Amino acid sequence: MTEVPLAYGLILGGILFALGLAGLLMRRNLLFILISIEIMLNGAGVAFVAAGSRWGQPDGQIMFLFILAAAAAEVSVGLALLLRFYRQRHTLDANRANEMRG
Amino acid sequence: MILLWLIVVLVGGGLLAWLAARIHPLLCRWISLAAVLVDLALALFEASRHLSSGNAGMNTWFEQVDWSWIPQFGIHFHLALDGLSLLLVLLTLVLGVVSVVISWSAHIKALGFYHLNLLWILAGILGVFLSLDLFLFYFSWELMLIPMYFLIAIWGGERRTYAAVKFFLFTQLSGLLMLIAILALYFAHYHATGVYTFQYTALLGTPLSPHTAMWIMLGFFIAFAVKLPMFPFHTWLPDACAEASTATNVILAGLLATTAGYGMIRFLFPLFPGAFRAFAPVAMTLAVITILYGAILAFSQTNLMRLLAYASISHLGFVLLGIFSGSGIALQGAVMTLIAHGISTSALFIVAGSIEDRTHTREIGVMGGLWDTVPRLSGAGLFFALASLGLPGLGDFVGEFLILLGTYRAHTAMTVVAACGVLAATFYALRFVQRAFQGPNLRPWRLPDLALREGLTLGAMMVVLLWLGLYPQPVFHTFAQAANHLPALWR
Amino acid sequence: MLGLLWLIPAIPFASALALAVLRFPRKVVAWIAVSSIAASSIISLLVTFSFLHAPPAGNAYTEVLWTWMRVGDFRPEIAFYLDPLSLIMVVVVAFVSFLIHLYSTEFMAGDDGYSRFFAYMNLFVASMLTLLLANNLLLLYLGWEGVGLCSYLLIGFWYRDPENGLAGRKAFIVTRVGDTAMLIGLFLLFHDLGTLNIQELMQRAPQHWHLGAGAAVAAGLLLLGGAVGKSAQLPLQTWLPDAMAGPTPVSALIHAATMVTAGVYLIARTHVLYSLAPPAQFAVAVVGAATLLIAGFSALTQWDLKRVLAYSTISQIGYMFLALGVGAWPAAILHFMTHAFFKALLFLAAGVVIQALHEEHNIFRMGGLRKKLPVAFWTFLIAGCSLAGLPLITAGAFSKDWILWGAASAANGSMGFWIVALIGILLTSLYTFRMIFLVFFGEMHSEVTKKPGMAMLIPCIVLAFLSIAGGYVKTPFAHFLETALPWNAAAAGAVHISEIGSETVAGLVFLLGLVLAYVLFLRSRSYAASLTDNAAGAALHRFWFSDWGMDWLYDRLLVRPYAWAARIDKGDLIDGFYSGIAELNVLAWRVLGLTESGRLRWYAAGIAAGSIIYIAVVLFL
């Protein structure tokens, strides 16, 4: 079985990360923003796993597990905040959440 | 050990007074008065012990306490007393007693905390006068700052926050410069000798290139110049004085300036003789500008406290001039001026505070004709205004005369200009007397004259000024013993 | 007996202190104040007898009380020095002070500041005596400033009227301008000669400085600056006329008899210095000559009785300066003494008149008081004759003729000075009799409301006696002063006139003035009016009346610019710099605050952009 070259994994991770970032910046809906963040995290995770397999080390996969845990925690807190926000504002528009400026 | 007690009594007394205020306000006042009086008694005991013995001049220091504090960095807890510190310690404690006494009857919010601050700032000032370890000196220097910030910010007038923050920024920033200078000196000393130490006596001989010495000296100088305050770093003082309460003003104008003068005498020349000499013409020019600028601005002020603050700045210009003139006579005069100015300016602030208590104004235009209703208070105001304008026979004259006499040798033209500062003092002092006490009593004011306690305080200060003016020899004698071990300098 | 010397200033000082601090009933106040000065006078007489009877070694006696300060080589003492010069001054000052104190007990009787008044007066006498007895210039300076202070306090004694306070302030400040010069002179003397002890200075000066040395001239001129301020000479004479705002006894004591002659004393005391510095001494003579003329003309135009006397005082002190300047040292001191008598008397008698007319100062509203106030009239007349120099009889004639003769014949004298002094005599005679004719002759314009009591009249009578008798002591006086002040008359051959001739001319000029005054101010006032009717006359009158415009000049040149500079900088322009820094911070805060929009996605974009830039920098640079 031939190994997938490292570059492919990194390019895939990069594309995922860029897609997530673009979504984060372009979408106004908080739910989509959360999803975009998940995609970015997964992009980073792909890069870790690819790098781990390239060096034959388990560290990459361990890091991915950490990322999964962090993402789960982040999503749970994020969704809770999102729900509270929706209750108050009856909208998920991120631009309406600007009361903490200057 | 007495030196340690001097500080401990004040720090402990402050804490006790703070606690006692919860029991009874009077208890708090008595405790703080007792603490300062005990300290004064200790200092007088010290003075009598060392001044009466004939060979006192032979010993470099009267008394020392030297413990290792943070040995890794060469930091010591090193207190020492010589003639110069003894004089200024006595001045501090006398004015300390005065400031406790004049706060006696005033209604003061958070009484306990007030006295805590009052006593702690005195402790900080004593620390400055007694420390022989530069780290401890810096520590005390900053310790003065915080209680003073609170005193202005909590018990001040309308714009107290502005004044307090301004005071804090000026002194804190300049203090940081000094910290950098101290550290630079510390490392320079390490490079030269391989020993880390903050000890004053050890640092005295540190070899420095002229360039480095100048920069390090400037760090010290600016810190002292801001505290003095010297033109153009003076603008915090009028604002602070305009907002602070009377007792705070006594310490602010009477004592903080003294710490600056002390620092210049103790550190600048002994540590950096070459840079000091090179810098002297600049410092003397600034001193002359300070004298005249302060006098002119004092003339135009209508707020009594600001007037006195600018007058104080003008007088402190003489101190700066005397220190940098490089003459022994002028140096003696500078010490004398520090003491006499401390007393006379404090007394003027007390008079101004008494007027404010009665008339509820600080604007001299609104006063007028007070002699009619409060002759004793007005007489006291006249007396101290005369001291301020340099009437012979009072302490201020002796100091300023000696400064000018000594400076004449070094720089004739500057002496002539500075002598015009004495003349300019006449303008603002007489304007103050004229506007506040003379003229018709238009309002008309009907006010109570000096109470016994105020009268006794001011009377005692008058006696001290007369004593300093007519028989200043004890002061010179005491200081001469310190001058012995200030390196062969001010000739 | 000489050991009692220190009591002479100490007793008035103690009494001043007691009066200032404690409260006494009026009777006790008067008693304490007068008796303290009486005690000083008696002690000064005792000291005089002792001094004359058994002169101390060197004809001088020094009493050291304590060392004032000992700083390096600067060691002034609190010490008193008695020699013929200070002895004469002390006796005259103590005695005249005593008379004026006695007079004041009645003059000030109705005033509510009775105790304060006498406290200031006693303090003044103490300071003046300290000034005279000081053995070093620093102690002299203490007395010098002390008398200036008391002068300030007493001019502004009636403080409720702001005008009085301003007059006092002006007096203090103008004299202090001179004092500052003097202070610098002290620095110069100490720097060059290493001491401030007067006798040591006088010994060392000739050793260190050759004749006409620059330092000597500078020192002489600087001391002259102090003397000019205190003695109200050109160009610092402007304070004295305004000083008349004070109570009349004050004008008599401080602004006529004693304090204003302190400058004369200072120059006489340091005469060795001036002998070493001919340009400085010449300046003294020129100042004196110019002042005596300028003040004489101004006196002619005043309508306020006390201001006439004030200008007259300035003019007479001008004579003393002239005498000092030409080197007729004892003549100046004799004129000081006779002037103290007759000028004090003029003021005291004027005080009687002013109080009798209910505080009327305008001489044109007086008149015809000869019958109503006979004692005041006769004493004023005697003093006036003494001032104008009625020959042979009055004391003033002796001293002034001596100065006139000195102006021509003394070491630095010249005929120019002689002529100026002669014109001065004409002016003096003219304004004196103008005053006398307007006040005491003619018809009455105001009612007499108060008759003087004995306490006011006795001093007048005693002084009237002295104004006549004081001149007969000229010869023993000069002899007595010999050890302190040299007098070598008729030195040069440049003298074109004999002493008798000079005195005769002076007598004639006096008569001319008297006749002129009679014609102009008593016989037909229309002549006087016609002089000022035309434009030129009126302008000249105004010019002289306003003291030759000097007040105006100083106001424009010095006072206003100073006040202007102070006013525009009231808010402290330097503070603008620090406020500027603070403002800059606030501005930066506002600008950076704009980026904090609260938009979540902007922040995210910012983070992303920042990361990209950072990575780019790390990778490509």
Structural summary, described in words:
The complex is a heterotrimer of chains A (102), B (491) and C (621). Chain A has helices at 6-26, 30-55, 59-89. Chain A is mainly α. Chain A has one domain: Helix Hairpins (Orthogonal Bundle). Chain A is elongated, with a radius of gyration of 17 Å. In chain A, 18% of the residues are buried. With 491 residues, chain B is mainly α. Chain B has a domain at 273-491. Chain B is globular, with a radius of gyration of 21 Å. Chain B starts with a helix and ends in an 8-residue tail after the last helix. The relative contact order of chain B is 0.10. By secondary structure, chain C is mainly α. Chain C is 73% helix and 2% strand. In chain C, strands 1-2 form a two-stranded antiparallel sheet. In chain C, helix 1 (7-21) runs antiparallel to helix 2 (26-53) and helix 2 (26-53) runs parallel beside helix 4. Chain C is globular and about 115 Å long. In chain C, 56% of the residues are buried. The model of chain C has no long low-confidence stretch (mean pLDDT 87). Chains in contact: A-C, B-C. The interface between B and C is large, with 53 and 51 residues.
